[in-house]
Amino acid sequence: MSNLVELNMGPQHPSMHGVLRLRLKLDGEIVREIEPIIGYLHRNAEKLCEMDYFCDNIVYFDRMDYVGAMNMEVGFLEAAEKLLGVEPPERAQWIRVVAAELNRIAAHLVWMGAFGLDLGMLTPFFYCFIEREKILNIFVELSGTRQQYNYMSIGGVYQDITPKIIEEIKEFIKQFPKKLEEIANLFLKNDIFLSRNRGLGVIEKETAISYGVTGPILRASGVPYDVRKEEPYLVYDKLNFDIPVSQKGDNLARFMIRLEEIRQSVKIVDQAITKIPDGPYFNPKAKKSLMIRLRGEGEVYARTESSKGEFGVYIVGDGGVKPYRVHVRSPTFKNLSIIPAVAKDKMIADLIAILGTFDLVFGEIDR
Amino acid sequence: MSLLERLFGVFSFLGHDLGYAVSYLIQAVLYLIVIALLLILMIYLFRKFMARLQQRLGPNRVGKFGSLQLIADAFKLLGKESILPSERDNFPFVVAPMMVLIGLMLAFVLIPYGSLYWIGSITATHSAVSVILIFALMAIMPIGELLAGVSSHNKYALLGALRAVAKDVSFEVPMMLSLLAVVMMASARVSTPLDMESLISAQFLAYGILQPLGIFLFFIAMVARASYTPFDMGESDSELVSGYSTEYTGMRFAMFYIGMFGTILLGSTLLSTLYLGGYSGPFSSSIGPIWVFIKAIILVLISFTVWLSLPRIRIDKFVNFGWKYLLPVSFINLILVGILTLGLGW
Amino acid sequence: MIGVKEVEDPKKRVPLIGMIGGMATVGKHLFEKPVTVQYPEQRREMPERFRFRIFLKLDDCVGCTLCEQVCPNGSIKMQPVDRENPRNKRKIYPDVNFGTCTVCRNCQEICPTDAIYLTNVFETSRTRNSFTYSPEELALEEDKVKK
Amino acid sequence: MVEILEEKKGKDGRPIFVIKKSDLLEFMRQKKQEGFDHLSLITGVDRKDYMEVNYHLYSFSKNQYIVVKVTTDNLTVPSLISLWKSADWEEREQYDMLGIRFDGHPDLKRMFLPESWVGHPLRKDYDLNNVQYINMDEYGEDYATFDPGDGW
Amino acid sequence: MKTGETGILTTTIDKALEWGRSNSLWPLTFGLACCAIEMMAVQGSHFDISRFGSEIFRNSPRQSDLMIVSGTVTKKMAPRLKRLYDEMPYPKYVIAMGVCVIQGGPYVKGYSVVLGVDRVVPVDVFVPGCPPTPDALTYGIMTLQKKIRGETDR
Hints:
Chain C has a domain at 53-146: Alpha-Beta Plaits. By secondary structure, chain C is an alpha+beta fold. Helices cover 22% and strands 18% of the residues of chain C. Chain D has 2 domains: 4-106, NADH:ubiquinone oxidoreductase Nqo5 subunit (Beta Polymerase, domain 2, 2-Layer Sandwich), CATH 3.30.460.80; 113-152, no CATH class. Chain D has 2 helices and 9 strands. In chain D, the strands form 3 sheets. In chain D, strands 1-2-5-4-3 form a 5-stranded mixed β-sheet. A two-stranded parallel sheet of chain D has the order 6-7. A two-stranded antiparallel sheet of chain D has the order 8-9. Chain D starts with a strand and ends in a 5-residue tail after the last strand. The chains are: A alpha+beta, B mainly alpha, C alpha+beta, D mainly beta, E mainly alpha. Chains in contact: A-B, A-C, A-D, A-E, B-C, B-E, C-E, D-E. Strand 6 (241-245) of chain A pairs parallel with strand 1 (2-6) of chain C, so a sheet runs across the interface.
């Protein structure tokens, strides 16, 4: 057809969640062809990782999934600690779980607010950010910064968790579920919201697997795959929680999965916060001035469940103080590749809604 | 005594013709100023209201409680560079925002505001067919939006304009039918039911109570006309950048912006006149205009809440909704009103 | 115990009721207290671990260059400073470029004498792109920088 | 029959199969039939004199994870796009970063950088001192300019 | 006031315009990377940039006065950034938020990051930090307001 309108959406577009560019072929309102063009936030993190010490690489990982930086740190350290042979002490592992799950809540809250904005709901965004702000305050107490924490280090965490912070987390966990339900009801009791999401953007199980999709999107399509369950890292196997799964595969299912994940994360934090054992929070093998002298050889792949999906870090070491090759399996990079298949022959408004449920974070896609 | 007569009393030394001309002019300017002030107040109210709904404070740096915020905005917009895109269609591009504003301002003039006891009637003009006139004037605005979208040669703007028109087409008919019901009910009591004032005098009981379906339909139509969020397909902030007004800068954009808020004020004023008794008020009609605006502001606040808490409907679903649900419901409303009027003699 | 839980879609219910409920929820917040902290007048309580700007104790610095090595992007460069300090034989001190500093705190962590440390001063914005602070500027008392 | 050159365990306990490049497609097809339905990752590693490509496979049903490794001297590897759709973007990324060409990929172009970018950044011999910058033509497409001088 | 000849009226108008501009900075919704989330937080309830009249984040560059470059500007993004800047009407202001856009930040050694957005567009205020806290960004916006009114020396 020759009468298709070509439209460049992005890289600057209010609902692209960053710098995605979509080259659309439009037939009126209906999208006939989609070509995602990425790389507008390609920050050469993998190259820089090769040029820096292991302990410095955390800086680049923090900035990958910038809304869930703790999860990124966990992912990198899972790999790096195996490569370097430094085991974090028990206490550090529990602290990491608490931090990672709190950050998962924060990341999902950002997504939920932004998704509301995509659909034109202005107010839930603010309620989500009010809740997120409470989590960030805890993180400031814990690590010192709001977003890019650099909190975990090889062999443990930089700073110990204090009883005051534990009290604050408990307080947050106590009041949060009520607020969450209130925000969720703004979405889920809304007929317009439901009509725009139910049965839309359905991803079949086979398609999802073939495209390598992971995380909430895969679980919404009926595969109960979660790294925390299949290959427990840290101390997740000592915790009691559920992996949400849905068979529908549509936008609404993805929303429900993420909502349930927030609830489960609350449950995890609630358990983990009481179970933090006493002991050192740092492996003395990696402490202080030793930290730039750690050497690693061999190759290690570690996968973790970030808030977006399976986050894998592949590190090849050649025995030096710097990694030889670092490659990141970024979940949203894979998830985005399914967009042309899903949003084809839908309306522009639907494309925006579908993109919204994908929870794109470009620091991670482009790296 | 009306405002015009008082003005003529001052200018009567100019003779009949010139005196009336001058009084009309001054009255028009007064109206413009009052409406402009009201709109500024509305936008300020909206920003404060939105902030409070979101547990924020809103503008509070310029003036007491940020009351001069809109003046600052106006100064800034006046001083902005006005960009005309190189591929525009010149005439419609320039005219479109004015059409929106002119349609709005003219429609305001025709609404009866009643009388304040120390000034007298402040209704500007009186027409025997003011209902029809108002809705005809309001129909200029979507044309302005369409022109704006088409003439700016921007794909987002074009899509936004097309959506806006599709939206307008699908709620206009139900709105007109619900208006017809009002006129029908009034025609049983007054001889000139197309006159806004006699519509008010015909309301022995507020029509909103007698026609719950009608007021509901009209409210939806009002929000849709103002393109507030469930129905802001034309603007679609997150999808089409800024819809039909994407290419507009400075004061031209401000005209669209004011038009958006003005429409909701106009719609609420109309609704309060048509369904809630207008200036006749619950207790006393001697402060008529104040009653009109109290009712209007309450309606405006409700529509702000609608705007801020609901997501956008997809355009095809709204067209569907308009023709499949709103239209039948408005027919049912018409039939019910017919039964009430003819059968029960209300 | 990690189980699998099937999530269910929200039930279909009468149209409009939920929407009006949602609007009521939003409207309810009109009567709640705003959470805004009015920044220039009121300040949020900064937790004691909050860190932003680097400071230096000139007397403690031994010029070991560890901070320069560990800095991920070379924000820290050692500068010769003519200053009597028996512990710092080489007479080199770090200067910091805040135009690249990522506030990663590695320098504070690795410093053997705790000479370099981060504080909660965050009002550092400028209208010109010059953010390289010499060792003397870094050593200025916090209060002076805060104004 | 597919010949496995070497089978070893990585430092993280995952089995690594080193196979010949010519056997890759056949081996992968076998593995896919065995239930390894998730191609998780394709990583190229520049070993200076040869290029190494690692494929990470996962089976949802069996919860097993394997790594398949091939080496190449001439920068070409068969493409897996016929087996997994996810190979599409992964291979484009590796082509962009390391210059490994995947035979049979229908649309092998750069992922992150514009087509005219000189060199493949993750190669060990990539010269970071040669500054390139990107311009945009009037149609919104990118092209890289090579600037031996200061540049950006 | 640039020349000594401007009359009282023009001075007053200038003052009024400066006052209007400085108190009504409508930012462009322009999120690039990590800092964009903090920019959203500034919009959020705890920090509430709307107090300074900057609450309306316009999506269209045609209607915005302030571009907060929030996050890394890569070489691929730089031409787009330039184009967006060109689309904005005068008077327009740019805040460089975060160290990535000031001098390259963590990516200063890499190949694909523009080392300072001031090489692409003129920048009015630089707000360092990685990312700057919302308070720091608010301070940056206040600095810009002062700069517009001609009060700052920083």
